[in-house]
Amino acid sequence: MSVVVAGCKVNLGLRITGVRENGYHELDSLFWPLPRPCDRLHIRETGAAGLTVLCDTPGINLENNTLTKAYAALAKRVPDLPGLEVRLNKGIPAGAGLGGGSSDAAALLRWLNSRVSSPLDDQALAEVALTVGADTPFFLINKPCRVRGIGEIIEPCRDDALAGIHLVLVCSQIHASTPQAYADYDAALKASDTVSGQNCLTKTESKANGTFLSGVRTELSIHNDLEDVVFSRHPQLAEIKANLLRLGAGAVAMSGSGSSIVALFAHEFHVESQAAAAMLQGENRRVYAHVL
């Protein structure tokens, strides 16, 4: 039996730059991997054909999920996949904007690809990953990256760009629907007569994805275009953000389509970051503190 740990990601800034004819939204975002919270995949070869997924977490379709999709997608390219039983222990909350399902799929793809007689190269494996989910190719790299398009344009960036910054991640029990978030965003955009695509982090004057990729450390600034519409449905998330700012965070934003909230504290505010993590920990929340 093998145990594979699948970490999560947070979005440090998310801009919607356009919508494709098929309805998919194009993004410009800084993805940052975190080791916690995490999922664990307990993988056992069965000697039989196909994949069986076991999981006790309510709401997961055991017959149709990112693991079954990843296995099926790879099987189309690699004919000699071993039969597996995967017991999934979920630590990454669903509907939190942390990419748990995509991370699980990438972890399984990497594990399988390392055990077949003719493994795919990195590009081919990324193509398989993209058919599973927009975030899945990122998790194959699992390093800080600027991600654009629908997730297929991935540019690794320096992992020391935020060295010393304290990150506090607050996960509530609120499940934010990704399709609903984008539908609400589209409706708000239409109502405001705003031109789609004008919200791009790649500004002419900076040529970089917001503050972080430009190398500027004096000002922390992150923004998520989906935040307003998600907060309108879940005002408790706005309250969490306000509390983090009040407790000394230099920048706070929702991750992905929600519902998790990520806060950045400058290195000299490490005491405040610890206090914020302790104060916001509660029965209905899980709080994770990291030093980047």
TrEMBL record:
It comes from bioreactor metagenome. Belongs to the GHMP kinase family. IspE subfamily. Keywords: ATP-binding, Kinase, Nucleotide-binding, Transferase. Residues 222-276 form the GHMP kinase C-terminal domain. Its EC number is 2.7.1.148. Residues 65-140 form the GHMP kinase N-terminal domain. This is 4-(cytidine 5'-diphospho)-2-C-methyl-D-erythritol kinase. InterPro entries: GHMP_kinase_C_dom (IPR013750), GHMP_kinase_C_sf (IPR036554), GHMP_kinase_N_dom (IPR006204), IspE (IPR004424), Ribosomal_Su5_D2-typ_SF (IPR020568), Ribsml_uS5_D2-typ_fold_subgr (IPR014721). One of its GO terms (molecular function) is ATP binding.
